[in-house]
């Protein structure tokens, strides 16, 4: 087992509202994940490496649908168009939308409506990730 096998899964949290972003990151930390955060679709695509040669090491994405500029559905579309991010699991979240068609056709994507219960978000991530973190605390 390599040292990387011991690291918890890393989740990119993409949410434009700073309070919601912090709440999502806290939920994920309590669930045993490590997080990176950003507030826009453009920043998410940059961190995921869709616009650069070497992508950041991200195991999954929690992605708000309503973002300024590039929205969450477009981020998902661009991720799926790139070999490096084609199979990265994504949980889309929104208080203002129903389950998008893009999620219904994507085996690596899920939808969680806001407000959500932490177990709902963590449950969707654990379905998508092959080795979800164990929370023994």
The secondary structure category is: alpha/beta
Q: Identify the CATH class.
A: Alpha Beta
Q: Rg to the nearest angstrom?
A: 14 Å
Share in helix = 25-40%
How big a fraction of the residues is strand?
15-25%
**Fourth-level CATH superfamily:** Response regulator
End-to-end separation in angstroms reads 23 Å
Q: Tally of extended strands? A: 5
Q: Which spans of ≥5 residues are poorly predicted at pLDDT below 50? A: none
Main sheet: strand order: 2-1-3-4-5
Instruction: Quickly give the CATH architecture.
Output: 3-Layer(aba) Sandwich
| Biggest sheet layout | 5 strands, parallel
The CATH topology name reads: Rossmann fold
What is the total domain count? 1
Mean residue pLDDT: 86
Number of H- or I-type helical stretches: 5
- Order of secondary-structure elements: EHEHEHEHEH
Could you explain how this protein is built, in words?
The protein is built from five helices and five strands, in the order E-H-E-H-E-H-E-H-E-H. The protein has about 140 residues and is of the alpha/beta class. It has a single domain (about 10-130), classed as Rossmann fold. Strands 2-1-3-4-5 form a five-stranded parallel β-sheet, with helices on both faces. Helix 2 runs parallel beside helix 3.
């Amino acid at each position: 087992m390599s040292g990387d096998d011991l690291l918890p899964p890393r989740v990119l949290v993409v949410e434009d509202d700073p309070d919601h972003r912090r709440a999502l990151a806290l939920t994920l930390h309590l669930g045993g994940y490590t997080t990176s955060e950003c507030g826009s679709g453009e920043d998410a695509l940059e961190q995921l490496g869709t616009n650069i040669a070497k992508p950041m090491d991200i195991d999954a994405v929690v992605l708000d649908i309503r973002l300024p500029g590039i929205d969450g559905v477009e981020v998902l579309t661009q991720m799926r168009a790139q070999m490096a991010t084609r199979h990265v699991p994504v949980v889309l979240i929104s208080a203002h939308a129903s389950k998008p068609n893009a999620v219904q056709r994507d085996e690596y994507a899920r939808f969680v409506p806001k407000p959500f219960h932490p177990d709902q978000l963590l449950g969707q991530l654990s379905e998508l990730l092959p080795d979800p973190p164990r929370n023994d605390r």
